[in-house]
Design a protein that fits this description.
The chain is α+β, with helices and mostly antiparallel strands and 565 residues long. Helix content is 37%, strand content 25%. The protein contains 13 helices and 21 strands.
């Protein structure tokens, strides 16, 4: 008797239909993977469709974690929620799938020694058949796609199911890999922006560049995006200058945060102290309360008296400052205490030096430990050699050129490089302290007075001398505005202030009609008109004043002179 069986053509059509259906499913899933920005939702939808298409009772996606030692159920569908379940890669059929990186089909789990019934016992679910496929990309296993219990037919998976699930797992693995790469790029960009912001904040914590005549200058070049080094200097209301230079242990964001904390504490508290040792005691106590992970700060912190050119400072475990005498000799001043943040009850001895025509160099170990062209550490001797070569340059140019020698293009910077230079007034001879050109309008004088005051302070003038210079310049400018061109001058005034070592020289130029100096003499107080003190006030305030021959194209040139000390 002839059996009823489908023809070969019918079998072919059925196979073709399955292939077309499978390809359509794959295309749809891949499109969802490519277009979705939410991997969680995509994977949840994916395993639901996997379960429906494969006609399974349950489906799960396990991903490797904990250095690939554990499998964690990331998404699941079915009667039992096992999301978050963790299992060792050495356990079960899912673990075997990872270990062998090959599909595992167990048609009847009762006959498998690798099957673990722990979940079945705790949930009441009955596992009959399992089909697992590794989620692999270029040999790198990310996890496992698991299908449980076929609902149709005999309830067991077959080789055709195994082939299909392998293809589906490959598509899912690629989507997971791409999503992770995208997340990694997003995270990398976020960290890059945060580091840029941190670096910008650090730059703003550093002092703004001062005029060339200011006795302190500094530079900072981080080895990475953020720095553990910092320095600061600023003038106090009583005329002294506070300064510090420090190095925070460690690298990265932790060091940067400790740097910001320490720098802020010092800037806030420095105004309340005259003793740098007591200042460091207070900051040390605060850091010991909050510092963690064994971090500490080495620092040199002190005060400069511009008039006497004496410096008092405390050194907490930092590189010994280098003092260069006026005769060119060098001496090191060693640290007298451990770093900040180590022990709360620490005293910080104070050292005192006089510039006396010399200079004081402060630096971090990134300077002395940098490599020379011979691939050897620069060391203190090498730094002294660089200083001697650059000693004739301006302070800021000295530091820039020294650092340029250290940060050569053929050498990778291994540590932050920070330097500070404190110089004597004798290195500031014949320097122009300020130059300002402004309209001859009274409302402009407030800004001019502020600049004159700043220039005189930075030159080392006492508070009393500063006040006299400001008043004299203000009176001279007012005279030009009120009397030049018979009181009708609407041009400009050029003010220059020069430091000639012992004297401050103020030069005022205008473009009014030339005056006769012989007719401009100080008058007695009885002769002064209300509202003006004339040249009498200038004569009383300044050591000397004279009308110089005006440069070509200029109307008048008045020079005022005052001794700095």
């Amino acid at each position: 008797m002839e059996l009823n069986r489908p023809s070969l053509r019918a079998i072919g059509n059925e196979a073709d239909h399955d292939v077309v259906e499978q390809l359509a499913l794959l295309a749809e899933l891949i499109q969802e993977f490519a277009s979705s920005l939410n991997l969680d939702e995509t994977l949840q939808t994916t395993i639901e469709r996997f379960m429906m298409y494969m006609d399974a009772e349950a489906a799960s996606i396990f991903l490797l974690e904990n250095e690939d030692r554990e499998l964690v159920c990331y998404k699941c569908v079915g009667p039992v929620d096992i999301a978050g379940l963790r299992m060792d890669v050495a356990e079960g059929i899912v673990g075997k799938c990872v270990r062998e990186q090959a599909c595992q089909m167990v048609r009847d789990v009762r006959r498998s020694r690798d099957f673990s019934a722990t979940i079945d016992h705790s949930s009441g679910f009955a596992t009959r058949s399992l089909l697992c496929a590794p989620l692999s990309v270029r040999g790198d296993c990310l996890g496992v796609l698991e299908l449980v219990n076929k609902r149709s037919g005999d309830g067991l998976f077959d080789p055709k199911d195994q082939t299909l699930v392998r293809v589906l797992a490959s598509a899912a693995a690629l989507a997971i890999h791409n999503a992770r790469m995208a997340d990694s790029l997003v995270e990398h960009e976020r960290l890059r922006r945060e580091l840029e912001l941190a670096r910008e904040i650090q730059r703003k914590l550093l002092p703004a560049p001062h005029a060339p005549y200011f006795p302190v200058s500094g530079v900072n070049f981080p080895a990475y995006e953020v720095s553990g080094d910092f320095y600061d200097f600023f003038r106090l209301p009583d005329g002294r200058i506070y300064f510090n230079l420090a190095d925070v242990s460690g690298k990265g964001m932790n060091a940067a945060l400790l740097m910001a904390q320490t720098s802020s504490l010092l800037r806030c508290l420095a105004r309340d102290y005259t003793d740098p040792g007591k200042l460091l005691e207070r900051v040390n106590q605060a850091l010991c309360e909050t510092a963690s992970h064994g971090m500490f700060v080495t620092i040199v912190s002190g005060y400069i008296d511009p008039q006497s050119e004496r410096i008092c400072f405390a050194n907490a475990g930092h590189q010994p400052p280098l003092q260069r005498g006026c005769d060119g000799s060098f001496s090191e001043i060693p640290a007298g205490a451990p770093p900040l943040g180590v022990t709360p009850e620490t005293e910080f001895p104070v050292s005192e030096v006089s510039l006396a025509g010399g200079s004081l160099y402060l630096f971090t170990d990134g300077v002395t430990e940098s490599l020379t062209a011979e691939r050897k550490p620069l060391d203190v001797a090498g730094l002294i050699g660089l200083i001697e070569r650059m000693s004739e340059l301006e302070s800021s140019d000295q530091l820039e050129n020294i650092v340029a020698e250290i940060r050569r293009p053929d050498t990778r910077q291994r540590d932050d490089i920070t330097m500070m230079l404190i110089t004597s007034r004798c290195h500031q001879l014949s320097k122009k302290l300020m130059e300002r050109r402004f309209p001859a309008q009274p409302e402009r004088l407030q800004d001019v007075r502020a600049e004159v005051r700043s220039a005189a302070l930075l030159a080392g003038c006492s508070a009393g001398v500063v006040a006299q210079i400001v008043l004299a310049v203000d009176e001279a400018c007012t005279n030009i505005m009120q009397h030049a061109d018979e009181g009708d001058y609407s041009g400009e005034i050029l003010l220059e202030i020069h430091n000639n070592g012992d004297e401050l020289v103020c030069v005022l130029k205008d473009w009014a009609a030339t005056v006769d100096p012989g007719r401009i003499q100080p008058r007695s107080l009885e002769e002064l008109r209300p509202g003006g003190l004339g040249t009498h006030f200038i004569d009383e305030l300044m050591d000397d004043w004279v009308f110089d021959e005006a440069p070509q194209g200029c109307g008048n040139c008045l020079t005022l002179t005052k001794r700095i000390t």
